[in-house]
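Chapter review. Work through the record for STAS domain-containing protein before attempting the end-of-chapter questions.
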Amino acid sequence: MIEISTSPTSTTLVITGDLDLAERDQFPEVAARVVGLRRQLVVIDMCRVTFMDSTGAAFLIALADSARKRGGAAALRGADPRDLFVLEVCGALEMFRLDPDHRCEDARPASDFSAPATT
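Structure tokens for STAS domain-containing protein:
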């Protein structure tokens, strides 16, 4: 499930559950809605994401690319090291601002996966 909220300067997506091939049917509608809101910053809250595959990564990459084309940015908060690794393997991690200070309220159990090095 993807919930969208807005402020005067940002759009926030709160993603719950899997972000994968099985959920891809909702991605075009969500992306169109986010683009239509025309906010400079797209914040993607991944605190409740349980799994992400390359299809989910492609969706996030499309959101970041769209924000960049409008002169804005995309920020990830609460992303698990596994999710960051998927974006890194896709060569897209640098497209996102990472929020290292964010602490998820209902944090999922930490994985044993090591976080990728970021520059």
